Inverse folding.
């Protein structure tokens, strides 16, 4: 176990180092400089600004400083908004995004598992087909289209939900639903197929012949075993929710980190793009690692020391 | 209890008949096709895909309007017999733009899938065939790159390299090939110890021949499925990037840029968002069900 975690940690750090270096070098070769604006700055001021942000040093010194800063959880300043650092942005926007993300994950897992279970228990009957059509639709409709459709029909046309902004619980429902739609569909399919696999096992037959009620069999014997693969999906789920939040927050005017990130992309605020990318990468890789470790603990059949499944 | 022998009678199986093959022999791909045909949803997806491709080719010629020419006296017109899908804020015909966008979106999807195929087959093929240290090194590299969050890297590349069709395809391919290479490696690993590969080696076939004549053709099934499923994810990524404002530059239209332009006007001119958005969904849906159908048809045991 310890060996496995160590190995995974090493890979995680290498991946992180790769993306941190990539952000650094990409931003150096990016066209235009961060102070480019309509007005041409006098050369003295530009030199001063460069000195202030350390841009006058050779690249390796800047690279080293950058790495050290990241290790110290300092994601640097914003070039466009002088008084704000990336850390300020994260502290301000991330709690909102986190709340939205958690709500979406809850919806995705709850509805997805429910749909999957119904589909598997009514295999090849109409509930199965209905659930699977919902799942295929969920996979085919990208979150930002789902968001605009939900907003148009449920908020603008029917007025059931508020159109945008982030004020009350009602404001969170549509964005969370839109964010959850695709992962929910994946979870439903995953749950269904693993339920079907488990239902075909001999121990289910044994349980039935012992005279256990179908409710007990479903809850105690089937679902417990069938939900294991769903746990593995939690990593990609986090990634999906995270990237999905960029567009969802934009559509619903939610002041989260995703919306800030998109604004910084449109402003070409390079330091913010770098900082937020690195922050997101750390978040993602750590959560994927945690999910993998949790999976190993939950399912004793997985031998962690042997590396990944299927290798 | 005794049962007398006269209670049994021979129903007439003849030994000579037992070995007779009554069904015509089927090649692997014929068999796959038969199974695929039974899957109604997949068949529907294939028809839908055919229609979409047909419209992408001929759609722009069906209307007298051009996708790029402005007509400011006719802006934001609702769908009518004149402009079938309405017009946008510069008076451009949405029908013409939708099918022009279909060309670009489908082109991006197919191009990304082809690049993934080439790099993935070479990388995974070499890693799987050589094995040992080479395999270890190549796959570790792929693992590390795989850890890099895909969309974030693509966004970063688009910001740095500037917007455009080529940049977008390059950005998607940088980590897109890893999935394909893993699948090819797995296939090659399991196939290379088969007797017919040994036989080919004994007959003096070189590595190139074994790869191109034996290992790759026999891995074609999973490769095909992966490709079919890469296309919709690339189309999705394109739309997503365009939606972030990192898409193609005007007057070029893709479904993503059209949806992005249509979003702010959704309340008053919903058709500007509705048409491109619907076609993004339909295309992704069609590719997904065809891909799923292919996977089920290729490997009936792996039904998901």
């Amino acid at each position: 176990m310890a060996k496995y975690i160590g190995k995974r940690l090493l890979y995680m750090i290498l991946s992180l180092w790769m993306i941190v270096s990539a952000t650094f070098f990409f931003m150096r070769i990016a066209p235009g400089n961060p102070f480019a604006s309509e007005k041409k700055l006098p050369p003295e001021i530009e030199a001063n600004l460069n000195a202030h942000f350390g841009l006058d040093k050779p690249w390796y010194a800047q690279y080293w400083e950058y790495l050290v800063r990241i290790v110290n959880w300092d994601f640097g300043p914003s070039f466009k908004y002088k008084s704000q650092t990336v850390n300020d942005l994260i502290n301000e926007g991330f709690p909102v995004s986190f709340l939205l993300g958690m709500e979406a994950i809850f919806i995705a897992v709850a509805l997805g598992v429910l749909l999957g279970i119904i589909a598997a228990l009514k295999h090849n009957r109409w509930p199965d087909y209905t659930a699977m059509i919902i799942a295929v639709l969920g996979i085919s409709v990208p979150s930002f289209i789902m968001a605009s459709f939900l907003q148009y029909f449920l908020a603008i046309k029917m007025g059931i939900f508020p159109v945008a902004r982030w004020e009350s619980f009602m404001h969170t429902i549509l964005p969370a639903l839109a964010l959850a739609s695709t992962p929910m569909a994946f979870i439903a399919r995953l749950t269904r197929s693993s339920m079907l696999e488990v239902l075909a096992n001999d121990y289910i037959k044994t349980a039935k012949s012992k005279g256990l009620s179908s409710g007990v069999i479903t809850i105690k014997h089937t679902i417990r075993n069938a939900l294991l693969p769903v746990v593995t999906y939690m990593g990609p789920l986090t990634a999906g929710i995270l990237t999905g939040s960029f567009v969802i927050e934009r559509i619903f005017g939610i002041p989260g980190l995703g919306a800030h990130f998109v604004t910084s992309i449109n402003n070409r605020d390079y330091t913010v793009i770098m900082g937020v990318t690195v922050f997101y990468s750390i978040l993602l890789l750590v959560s994927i690692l945690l999910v993998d470790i949790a999976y190993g603990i939950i399912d004793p059949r997985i031998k962690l020391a042997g590396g990944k499944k299927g290798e | 209890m005794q049962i007398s022998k006269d209670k049994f009678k021979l129903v007439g199986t003849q030994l000579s008949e037992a070995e007779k093959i009554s069904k015509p022999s089927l090649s692997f791909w014929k068999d796959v096709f038969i199974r695929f045909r039974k899957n109604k949803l997949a068949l529907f997806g294939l028809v839908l895909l055919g229609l979409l491709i047909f419209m992408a080719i001929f759609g722009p010629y069906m209307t007298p309007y051009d996708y790029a020419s402005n007509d400011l006296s006719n802006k934001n017109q609702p769908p009518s017999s004149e402009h079938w899908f309405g017009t946008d804020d510069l008076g451009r015909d949405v029908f013409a733009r939708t099918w022009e966008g279909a060309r670009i979106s489908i082109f991006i999807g197919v191009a990304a899938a082809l690049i993934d195929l080439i790099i993935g087959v070479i990388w995974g093929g070499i890693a799987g065939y050589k094995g040992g240290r080479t395999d270890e090194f190549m796959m570790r590299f792929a693992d590390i790159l795989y850890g890099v969050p895909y969309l974030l890297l693509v966004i970063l590349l688009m910001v740095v390299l500037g917007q455009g069709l080529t940049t977008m395809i390059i950005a998607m391919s940088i980590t897109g090939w890893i999935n394909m290479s893993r699948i090819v490696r797995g296939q090659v690993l399991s196939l290379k110890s088969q007797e017919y590969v040994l036989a080919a080696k004994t007959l003096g076939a070189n590595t190139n021949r074994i790869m191109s004549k034996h290992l790759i053709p026999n891995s074609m099934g999973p490769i095909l499925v992966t490709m079919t499923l890469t296309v919709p994810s690339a189309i999705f990524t394109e739309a997503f990037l365009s939606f972030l404002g990192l898409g193609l530059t005007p007057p070029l239209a893709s479904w993503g840029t059209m949806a992005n332009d249509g979003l702010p006007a959704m309340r008053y001119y919903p058709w500007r968002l509705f048409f491109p958005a619907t076609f993004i969904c339909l295309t992704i849906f069609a590719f997904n069900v065809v891909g799923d159908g292919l996977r089920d048809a290729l490997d009936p045991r792996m039904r998901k």
